[in-house]
Inverse folding.
């Protein structure tokens, strides 16, 4: 049951930065029609630095825990740095390696965050 | 009697599936040794292209290939070998029928499907309806997931040209009673197409007795290889519709200006077919014949009854589909309150129970039930009651983990 180690369950049950950011400067959403997972990121940038972040969403444990871990990780970081995040980054954050099908759940939040930061691809 | 049939499948005796409860048989079944050996032997000892060479090797390959067609004919009791078309899978078979037949329809003609169709028997018709200005209608299902017989008469009329429906739902497990629908279709002078992708692996299907125009299934869901599907078409129907793919093999005469078509079944088999896969499919159908339908049906009826009885007792679990075993097979789609299907599938995987999570290629059906996804456990000959117990145990474990 490696996928559901303590840190992931903890982030799922007690999500960090969960909620709304009324004065957000950027918003991004990503969803997976196939399973109904959805993540919505809202960020506030000041001098290209993420000064505030919030997210909301629904879906499986992995998709939601990944969003929480990601939010916690990127707050205070430069936009440019986050633009380098990729699959590997998410695997490191989660401390697990899901199979290729399951990895998509974890990547949803990165996709949403990049849209919020207006980073292409 | 089938409780030892697991030994006939190398993936369970020697492969990665040694301790695995493989409950994703509606997606694809595992392959018995006899199928693998027959394909391997064909490649090693008798391989050549079919219908072309005049040397012995090619003649023998052609004979083996055509022998498999005869096995398929017997399996579904078609009248003639030439009514058996080899395709790639069920999708390809249904696309062939939809694309070839709909060309001959007139704007306003109606295609009747059911609300429980797999995308394979829905999207091709939807596309043809857009292209040729046809109307697609859906026979409604009840909240229990059976066709609503009371509504049948509202859906047939003089414009009904196609009735295409599944003989077994890959989500609900429902096995619709086809005869009343076929009778109404006939009265309306409509063609009848059956998606038998699931059905053929669970009970005998007799195309002549049903009196249908076409039927589609895939090799990989019935212990055969991937890459091979079947389209049965009643001779008059197949002769009446144009070819689907054009090119080699399917022609009779060709000039720089024009071509004429080869007779059935070659008219619908353009290019080099998946020869070894056809032979593998033949071996798979022979395998089923040796096990025998009475034994298979009894085993699966036991699994269906037991599966329903134990799953319905699990707290917060809802089965999507009939809760009673009549006219239903061992396919169980369900939701568990508070647990996403992905998570359930992942935890079950960690205790070596393989199930499917998602919409199982039936998005409209899931939407109808207000769902985006479900978890599905589907059973076949090599599954056991103990595996159902492991499934239930795993579900309870998941509930504990996420509570
Ligand atoms: C009822 C039904 N129809 C059609 C299909 C499509 O089969 P294939 O993917 O082999 O084309 C499936 C299986 O996925 C099915 O269960």
């Amino acid at each position: 049951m490696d996928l559901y180690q303590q840190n992931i369950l903890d982030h799922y049950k007690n999500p960090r930065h969960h909620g709304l950011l009324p004065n957000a400067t950027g918003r991004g959403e990503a969803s997976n029609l196939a399973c109904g997972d959805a993540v919505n990121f809202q960020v506030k940038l000041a001098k290209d630095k993420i000064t505030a972040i919030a997210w909301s969403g629904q879906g499986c444990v992995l998709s939601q825990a990944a969003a929480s871990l990601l939010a916690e990780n990127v707050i205070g970081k430069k936009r440019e740095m986050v633009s380098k995040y990729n699959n590997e980054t998410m695997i490191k954050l989660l401390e697990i390696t899901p199979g290729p099908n399951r990895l998509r759940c974890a990547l949803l939040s990165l996709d949403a965050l990049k849209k919020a930061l207006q980073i292409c691809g | 009697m089938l409780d030892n049939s697991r030994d006939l499948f190398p993936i369970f005796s020697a492969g990665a599936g040694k301790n695995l409860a493989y409950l994703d048989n509606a997606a694809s079944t595992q392959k018995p040794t006899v199928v693998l050996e027959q394909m391997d032997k064909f490649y090693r000892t008798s391989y050549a292209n079919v219908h072309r060479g005049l040397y012995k090797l090619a003649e023998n390959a052609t004979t083996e290939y055509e022998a498999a067609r005869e096995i398929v004919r017997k399996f579904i009791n078609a009248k003639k070998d030439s009514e058996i078309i080899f395709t790639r899978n069920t999708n390809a078979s249904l696309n062939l029928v939809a694309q070839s037949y709909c060309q001959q329809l007139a704007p306003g003609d109606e295609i009747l499907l059911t609300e429980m169709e797999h995308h394979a028997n829905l999207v091709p018709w939807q596309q043809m309806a857009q292209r040729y200005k046809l109307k697609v209608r859906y026979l409604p299902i009840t909240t229990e997931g059976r066709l609503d017989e009371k509504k049948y008469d509202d859906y047939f009329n003089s414009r009904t040209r196609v009735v295409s429906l599944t003989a077994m739902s890959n989500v609900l497990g429902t096995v619709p009673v086809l005869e009343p629908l076929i009778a109404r279709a006939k009265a309306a002078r409509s063609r009848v197409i059956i998606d038998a992708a699931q059905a053929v692996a669970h009970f005998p299907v007799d195309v002549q007795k049903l009196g249908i125009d076409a039927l589609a299934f895939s090799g990989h869901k019935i212990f055969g290889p991937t890459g091979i599907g079947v389209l049965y078409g009643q001779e008059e129907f197949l002769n009446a519709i144009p070819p689907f793919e054009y090119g080699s093999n399917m022609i009779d005469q060709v000039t720089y200006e024009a071509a004429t078509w080869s007779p059935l079944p070659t008219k619908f088999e353009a290019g080099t077919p998946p020869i070894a896969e056809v032979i593998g499919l033949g071996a798979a159908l022979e395998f089923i014949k040796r096990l025998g339908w009475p034994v298979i049906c009894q085993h699966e009826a036991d699994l269906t009854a037991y599966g329903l009885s134990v799953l319905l007792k699990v707290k917060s679990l809802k089965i999507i589909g009939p809760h009673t075993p009549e006219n239903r097979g061992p396919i169980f789609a369900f939701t568990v309150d508070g647990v996403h299907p992905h998570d359930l599938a992942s935890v079950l995987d960690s205790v070596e129970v393989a199930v499917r999570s998602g919409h199982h290629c039936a998005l409209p059906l899931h939407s109808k039930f207000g769902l985006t996804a479900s978890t599905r456990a589907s059973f076949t000959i090599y599954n056991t009651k103990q595996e159902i117990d492991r499934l239930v145990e795993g579900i309870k474990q998941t509930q504990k983990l996420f509570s």
